[in-house]
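G., the chain you wanted modeled:
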Amino acid sequence: MGHLKDAFAKYDRIMHMIEAPDAQIDTLRAGFFLGAKTFLDAACKSAKLDEERGRALLDECRGDIETFQAEAMREALSMFERMK
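Predicted structure as tokens:
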């Protein structure tokens, strides 16, 4: 397998362990690979820019990812609190 397929396989196993519907797994897979493609496009674009602008583009991507992670963590904690 390739790196991305191997990386997604971890999520696929988790989704099967929690008995997620096939449609949900397919949606997760599509989002995973679209995200990887979007980041690869940004990385390729940054390589064509001067160092300052290229770094700024990648820093912006990092910021977007960190914002998403923080929002996901808040949502997960909120769900956990509602289960108490």
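Residues 51-83 form the longest helix (33 residues).

Shout if anything looks off.
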